[in-house]
Amino acid sequence: MTGPDPNNPFPLPHHNNLVFLKNIIRNPNIEVGDYTYYHDMENPHNFEKNVLYHFDFIGDKLRIGKFCAIASGAKFIMNGGNHETRPVSTYPFEIFANGWERADDGADHYPYKGDTVVGNDVWIGYEAVIMPGVKIGSGAIVATKAVVTKDVPDYAIVAGNPAQVVKMRFPESEIAQLLQIAWWNWSVEKITRNLAFISSADVSRLADCQ
């Protein structure tokens, strides 16, 4: 056995609301790793509709690693949704032209927080919201309806609005070991051989896998 085919958009033929994301993404500014899946209550092709304010002229990217699990309704707010907050008004007069484009003369540039990056083996819960430029570490869990406004450490569990770390999944020493092991970069054959250890909580045994 070599595991499921990562190039199969619908890995479970009886479950057409779950897809391997990289096979349906069309936006070149969204990058997704192998085996990362999205489940949607209605249609998994809704994923790109939930990547909001993602304008080509801004150029920011959404990068998602391997083996992530993304629940229905999860949303990613990109840099195009930012407004200036320092001027008296946050209203974007200049986008309507007809003389209002002059509002941009000498104005501060819109805030830009860079790419949004999700590591490997991340679980993003139902209707969670990820704000622009956030970095979510590998092994992290984002709780249902959490609003993530700042970076999430590797193997942290975050919840709430704004999301806060409520627990670390492993001790610091084991997190360092897990990041060094980086099982998500193993061959699919090695992953298949060692599923029992990847699915256990015994980090030391995982480190000894061949």
Automatic annotation (TrEMBL):
GO terms for molecular function: acyltransferase activity. CDD domains: LbH_XAT (cd03349). This is Virginiamycin A acetyltransferase. SUPFAM superfamilies: Trimeric LpxA-like enzymes. One of its GO terms (biological process) is response to antibiotic. Transmembrane segments: none annotated. The keyword Metal-binding does not apply. It comes from Pontibacter ramchanderi. InterPro entries: Hexapep (IPR001451), Hexapep_transf_CS (IPR018357), Trans_hexapeptide_repeat (IPR050179), Trimer_LpxA-like_sf (IPR011004). Pfam families: Hexapep (PF00132).
